[in-house]
Flippase-like domain-containing protein
Amino acid sequence: MKRLHWLRVAVSIAVLWVIFTKIPLRAVGDVLGKVTPLPLFFAFLFYLCGQTLSAYKWRLLAAPLGFQRRFRDYLSYYFIGMYFNLFLPTNVGGDVGRGYYLAAENKQWTLAYYSILAERASGTLALFLVASLGILVSGGASLPLWISWGTGLATVALFGCLPAVPALLKVLRARVRILSPYIREEMTLYWKTPDLLVRALLLSALFHLLLVLIHFLIGRAMGLQLPVSSYLVTAPLTGLAAFLPVSFNGIGIREAAYIFFLGSFGAGPAVAFSFGILWLAVVVAASLLGGGAFLLKRREKFPTTESRPDA
């Protein structure tokens, strides 16, 4: 595991080194020196709104699994997970942290992590949906055909496979012994309440549209005059590239993705790389708020089953 960690660090360093051989640091400094603070501040506020929306969606998905917590608890756990992501090699580390806090009271670890998996899965579906919308709106002329067609086909495939998930879980439980203890009947609840599934997908789509707005605001802060359709493509696909577990927390891969996608719409390499720096700054600033939530949570004692009011 440690070797894999250092491999991801090496990938991030290697990609950044290649970028810096192509882009003079002075050019990046010139771009950042012309940034207008106000749109960047609004981008930060909308990012906080997006994470709050995600915490609310997580609460909706966790409630049918037996987790009855206050919304402020979910919000606290969500920001703690964001804070953990600053130091852990992948976003999965933050998910482990918030799953731990959610299940700390009733010890239902499998269901807690399933709620997080469901939250992530609904977000991924919406990500591909928004990206496909962006490609349709922009005509996809600026992108390679394999990205345009690949995104569209992946979107159709993911939504097409969605109704078959309960049957797949049943097969896995019966035939894969190593997984059978972790596949619970409660995992099919979302398909028994399709209105909840639709609400989660709509909230996920709204979240990704907020990310598009944040990208638009960062572009405005930099003085970019790119069409909104360019951000409909760039925001979700760059997020997908950064989520791949091949670098340290997406560093390097994310910046390279910005150079590629924004470059496809006419932005220069220095501008696109600076865009990536500003996006990272917004994320880090918001995630640091989770550090305060983490310190407060450490002072609390989790209630035992005997002390719960509904026991």
